[in-house]
Amino acid sequence: MYKPIKDTKRIVRDYVQQPPLVPHDVSRYEISKNFNKCMDCHSSSRYVEMNTTRVPVTHFKSRSGQELSNLSPARYFCTQCHVPQVDAKPLVGNTFKK
Ligand code: HEC
Ligand code: HEC
């Protein structure tokens, strides 16, 4: 396992549709069928108190665009899209530019 980065400020996005990168260690946060640790700090009821970013409304829509009262199942496993960062050299070269 690589070493997670030290917790930092939000990381600037490289393109508009990018899921923001996770600027903190998540290695001990549980995301399972019964519990989602991320929502302890990022839910709409906790984000002010925890000084985080709120899970956006896009995450409360079904695939067909219907509004849901709970997080969409397609958005439940946050780290499928929001990638935590580690202190490591890239495995392969990449010439992507903003
Ligand atoms: C203990 C509270 C806490 C938990 C739990 C937590 N976060 Fe965060 N998260 C924060 C804070 C605080 C920030 C904001 C850092 C800043 O703005 O300086 C943040 C920022 C982020 C951002 C960047 C948002 C942006 O707009 O750039 C993402 C993405 C994120 N967290 C994802 C996650 C995911 C995924 C999980 C679960 C695996 C998670 N967080 C669990 C506190 C938490
Ligand atoms: C299928 C991919 C996907 C999953 C899964 C997902 N997100 Fe996102 N997330 C995105 C994308 C794309 C954006 C940027 C566009 C948007 O706001 O919808 C985003 C934006 C965000 C933001 C930034 C909102 C802002 O106002 O800047 C936060 C915070 C966030 N997601 C948290 C979460 C948390 C917490 C989970 C898990 C409960 C999660 N996301 C699951 C794709 C995803």
Automatic annotation (TrEMBL):
Say which family it is in. Belongs to the NapB family.
Q: What is the lineage of its organism?
A: Bacteria, Pseudomonadati, Pseudomonadota, Betaproteobacteria, Neisseriales
Q: Which GO terms describe its cellular component?
A: periplasmic space
Protein name listed in UniProt: Periplasmic nitrate reductase, electron transfer subunit
Q: Where in the cell is it found?
A: Periplasm
Report the main location listed first in the record.
Answer: periplasm
The record, for InterPro entries, names: Multihaem_cyt_sf, NapB
Q: Sorted alphabetically, which Pfam families does this protein's record hold?
A: NapB
